[in-house]
Amino acid sequence: MLQEYVDRKYRRDNKPPVEANLIKNRTAIVGIGQTSYTKNSGRDELDLACEAIRNAVDDAGLKISDIDGFDTFILDRLALPMLVNALGIPDVAFSGEVSGGGGAGCAVAMHAAAAVVTGQANYVCVYRSLNEASGHRYGRGDDFIEYMPVALTPNYAYTWPLGFVTPLGWAGVWGKRWMYEFGITREQIGWWPVVLREYAQNNPDAMFYGRPMTHQDYMESPMIVDPLKLHDCCVNTDGAAAYIVTTVERARDLRQKPAIILAASQSCPIEQEIQTVYQRPIISGLVETWYVGQELYRVGECGPDDIDVAQLYDPYSIGGIIQLEELGFCERGEGGKFIEGGDNIRIDGKIPCNTAGGLLSEAYLHGYNLVIEGVRQIRGTSYNQVKDVELSLVTAGPGVQSSGIILRG
Amino acid sequence: MVKLIEGIPVMRPYVDLDNQGYWDAIKNHKLVLQHCNNCNKFIHPPRPMCPGCRSQDTLEWKESSGRGIIYSFIMFTSPKMAYPAYELPYAVVLVEMEEGSRICANTHEIEPDEIYIGMPVEVMFEDLPDGQSVFRFKKREA
Amino acid sequence: MAIENVKDRAVIVGIGVVNFSTDIGRTEWYTACQAIKLAAEDAGMNIEDIDGMVKSVDDGPDPTYTMKGLGIDNLLYHSENHWGTSAMMNAVHAVAGGLCNYCVYYQTAHRASGPERCISDFLVAREFRDDSLDMVRYDFFSPFGLIGEPGYVAMMYRRYIHETGISPQQLGWVPVVASENAAKNPNAIFYNKPISIDDYMQSKLIADPIRELDCAPKVDGSIAIVITTPERARALKQKPAIITSVASGMAPEGQLYTSYSRDVITDLPEMKNMAKRLYRIAGIGPEEIRVAMLDDTFSPYVPLQLEALGMEAQSGRADSLPLESLRLCVRFEAPRRIRWQVLIQSLLPAEPEARPTA
Question: How many CA atoms lie within 13 A of C196 on its CB side?
């Protein structure tokens, strides 16, 4: 079980052949849109979603009525019929949803691409709308506990009654083990949020724009769940984001330079749970991210050295840093050393990461803002533009069934 | 070391036909693990099918030795992300049992700064005021 | 180049059905694993070769659960949908698009034995949905006691009777013919229990004019279907059922059973949109369809679907309903309310074969 992960040898022969992958080089993200990211939007999710979708459609140079497909997460306060009715769309040819919370961050783009490339729809809109700061929070246990005398599912029964009710805590367990096995220090981990905060200072859309943070600030910040400090945790956000996926043929007639999808992949490896992935032989790594990366590199026929900029899903710092290891930007267990001083992930470093500020400093839009920043890097319009970007990688939530995407110009 | 705050009920487990044996045993102050007789392997969390041989009728409950070592742990220190029924700080430990399965639990009579990865522990049971039984881990000699 | 459509690019190579029952005495997790195992055995493939899973999110355990039982190494594709069974569209684009090799579409629902045996993360989804913005819609019905799906459908059905003059004696043929089919199907809840039109007329009114026998019985059950490419199917055991076409559709002002804001409420415009695409992809018309499995959760939707699918030519005018001539099958979990999708499977037998059960 998982021997190939432990051996770091990805089995390629039982996968669909690369030439059968229709998404590769045939689909593109052609429009991106977002609302402002705030602590209290004062509007409902439907209102926010409509604004983000309209912005994405305008950006692409399309009309709302051109949209004939939708994809999003399963946990969503918006019901598709009400969104479609609000937008006045006459017919929807494809709609999909993906489970796994933030792990679906790139899977939705992959499904949208598969739909357009197989003729199921022409323009698929991928959207997410949240009032997580002012309204409904997804990543917090006490929402449930207030009215939940019994654990919600059999699996949660092994953790929730222990006072162990948040993704932060569940992830802390494998984070702690990772720190223990490889001697990772808190000082090292701190460089991830610090560098992200630096990026956010150039991004006026970011929640933490104008609020810089030094490494000392990080070290002095309070502990939330040992081993995670306040600044290791993502920033709850009200806002919405959307993007449009279509084929490269259609993209040629549109307004923007398309961000072509070189590869996209999903992974749900064995013993997968929502963060509580404790039964695997190794818990000090992110198996799902490793599988996603290997499949991306197989389909994209490239490797970590070819990636120019990466947006890694970082609901907590450790999640981002372990992904650096699993995606091959450094060796397993070397993430701490790699991140030290922060230069490796700064704009002219080895692999610039989360250049808009990521989930920690830009907004916690469940990874949609990461995809949008990945697209901007291809277009050359990022607030922290990396030079000569050819390949831009985006990942989705670690510790759950995950996904990833590589974009090219 | 977990201390209950009076008046706030502790969440009960979700008992179904797949995991009933596990939770029933805890009521009787026993820790059992699911075991596949065909593969001679312990499985956790309990499930309806053995992932090794995909048999649905070779699964049974075997009593655990109750001994294990702490594989990882976390400490809840801030009310922000903690459970309102317990006094802060409280720890959750992930214990690797001698049988190989890893089980989460709270601790008993272990101070927060005593806990370390590799610490030998054993299971103990406690009856809560609301009538449910829970298991926790306490120190043991290596 | 993108491909124009998915015609004939995916096939069904294995089916697994766990006996339908009103009290199955197992968890959904148990029967989901069982159904997938049966489907893989039926196909003659290794379970570990499964690398995709799709389902509707409403009932049953999600792939993280089923994988834990089945011992599958990794999934390259999975999706879970609300709002209908567009899961099949996902399965088809996954294998046709070269994203995975063998995709399992599974669905488990233990709605007869109730929520205490409905075990899965879908509950999480349900919790969130109860908090959904969509719920405000019900404020326009619930205060007046219009609660529940039979009532929502009854509102539409009353109008349908008014517009077409259809009588209960005519509509009654929907459940009667279905039960005739079921009587020969050992897997069916209504096995050996055919009902007559008199039984129908005497069945209880739930929400006048909807009768008890107009509503699908709640069952416990689990099904799984293996989908792969035609090339891979050659190495497998069964004659493949080629998926000639798969489509879905929506239409303005659509709501779950309660699309009362439309000009005409006795119509299924989303199904017409779907049917147009479905026939276009397949390159055929309704006259070439030999057998149809229609959603008969509520029997009034059957004549409406026949109209929307352009099949009334075969069965006469829908409002005259000579449905005796149409062989309907009792479906297990039917496609859902507002969006519709039909799989054209000319190769599938008219009645589900009795499958060995464990």
Answer: 3
Q: Write down the pLDDT at residue C128.
A: 52
Q: SS3 of C197, please?
A: helix
For chain A, say whether C94 makes contact (Cβ under 8 Å).
Answer: yes
Reading phi first (left if > 0) and then psi (alpha if -120 to 50, else beta), residue C170 is in: alpha
Is the model's pLDDT at C338 over the cut of 60? no
Q: What is the mean pLDDT of chain C?
A: 79
Residue B112 C-alpha, separation from nearest chain C C-alpha, in angstroms: 33
Q: Which two structure tokens, joined as six digits, stand for C141?
A: 């019905």
Query: Which chains are adjacent to chain A, needing at least 3 Cβ pairs under 8 Å?
Result: B, C
Chain C residues touching A135 at Cβ < 8 A: none
Q: Which helix (H) or strand (E) holds C273?
A: helix C269-282
Q: What is the pLDDT of residues C8-53, one digit of tens each?
A: 999 999 999 998 888 888 888 999 999 999 999 999 999 999 999 9
**What is the number of helices (H) and of strands (E) in chain C?**
12, 9
Q: C85-122 b/e with 16+ CB inside 10 Å = b?
A: bbbbbbbbbbbbbbbbbbbbbbbbbbbbbeeebbbbbb
Quote the DSSP letter at residue A110: H
Count Cβ atoms below 10 Å from residue B24 Cβ, excluding itself: 13
Whole-number pLDDT of residue B93: 96
Instruction: Report ipTM (2 d.p.).
Output: 0.95
Q: Name the pairing type of β-strands B59-63 and B67-76.
A: unpaired
d(CA A139, CA C357) in angstroms, rounded, equals 41
User: In the numeric block, which tokens belong to residue A312?
Assistant: 């890694």
- A52, A102, A203, A385 from A373: Cα distances, Å: 15, 16, 11, 10
Identify which of C62, C86, C97 has the shortest CB distance to residue A117.
Answer: C97
Token pair 């959750």 is at which residue?
A: B92
Return the DSSP state at A150: B
SS3 A262: strand
Show the DSSP H helices in A259-363 as ranges: 287-300, 317-326, 335-339
pLDDT tens-digit readout, C163-197: 888 888 888 888 888 888 888 888 888 888 889 99
With CB atoms and an 8 Å threshold, state whether B48 touches C116: no
**In terms of Cα–Cα distance, which of B58, B61, B63, B64 is closest to B36?**
B58
DSSP structure string for A179-243: HHHHT--HHHHHHHHHHHHHHHTT-TTSTTTT----HHHHHHSPEEEETEEGGGBPPP-EEEEEE
Which residues in chain B are closer than 8 Å to C38, comparing Cβ atoms?
none
Q: Cβ contact (<8 Å) for C117 and B16?
A: yes
The model's pLDDT over A70-103, given as tens digits with 9 standing for 90+, comes to 999 987 788 888 899 999 999 999 999 998 888 9
Closest to B43 in 3D by CA, of B28, B58, B29, B26: B58
Among A112, A120, A41, which Cα is nearest to A72's? A112
B109 and B91 in contact (C-beta within 8 Å)? no
pTM: 0.92
Report which of A162, C222, C27, A160 is spatially closest to residue B16, judged by C-alpha positions: C27
Contact (CB, 8 A) for A256 and A60: yes
